[in-house]
């Protein structure tokens, strides 16, 4: 007996198309304000101090508070969000780190959001830097040089790679797909977590992630606001997927522009061309066989 369905048959070499799950209408990511550890790291980078103070080494990274400047940044961000997102949000997720909680509390209070659902989620935490603060200066320099060359795969001493952080972002994306489709979602997190999620949403390769986040467009400052949308900003058409992104920094007076993700596809020749910038090991030619 022949099938009576009018649906076209799926070619034998293609998989059936699965239904696309809808994402939130809006996903807004905010990095915490400047923290005490940000101040310390900046002093190290400038050579104003040579080692981490004992006060840093004696407490977990999760417990660092905002600096005075960080609190001011959070208040400025709250005022900006009150205007930019006048309808507020359906749910707010907050990293378990104290500096993210402090930022979220100040922002929400300044924006006037009192009845919104707020959830604390340990999965949204900063990339784990492990024992980085405890190793000697030469080892820290070695780690940072490798991080500069291959930031996605370079591990922190007894900590995470940025790839592991990026994998963690899938937990949030899967959750909001299940629970928050068509809603407005706000997330308070950390710089490298936001970088990782941005890269995951945009399907960035290692090279694309490395290069983009070294540009001004990819700079994630303290209290940076990165907005993702599944609604076309040009015509308000819903696409069901997060396809547009805008990055702003209210306290610095930086207003971003919406741009659409352009997912890169490769032919075999284009794929091979991406490896041409990586030299073969010269010593291989000298080995027998």
Top keywords for this entry?
single chain, 289 residues, alpha/beta, Rossmann fold, seven-stranded mixed β-sheet, 9 helices, disordered N terminus
Characterize the structure shown.
With 289 residues, the protein is of the alpha/beta class. It has a single domain, classed as Phosphoglycerate mutase-like (Rossmann fold), CATH 3.40.50.1240. Helix content is 35%, strand content 12%. It has helices at residues 36-46, 54-57, 68-84, 98-111, 137-149, 162-179, 191-202, 206-212, 268-273, and strands at 26-31, 91-95, 117-121, 184-189, 225-229, 244-248, 259-260. It has a seven-stranded mixed β-sheet. Helix 3 packs across helix 4 (98-111) and helix 6 (162-179) crosses helix 7 (191-202). The termini are far apart. The relative contact order is 0.16. Residues 1-10 have low confidence and may be disordered.
Q: Strand pairing plus helix content: what structural class?
A: alpha/beta
Radius of gyration: 22 Å
| CATH level-3 fold name | Rossmann fold
Q: What kind of sheet is the major sheet?
A: 7 strands, mixed
CATH architecture name: 3-Layer(aba) Sandwich
Spell out the blueprint of helices and strands.
Blueprint: E1 26-31, H1 36-46, H2 54-57, H3 68-84, E2 91-95, H4 98-111, E3 117-121, H5 137-149, H6 162-179, E4 184-189, H7 191-202, H8 206-212, E5 225-229, E6 244-248, E7 259-260, H9 268-273
Parallel strand pairs: 1-4, 2-3, 2-4
Antiparallel strand pairs: 1-5, 5-6, 6-7
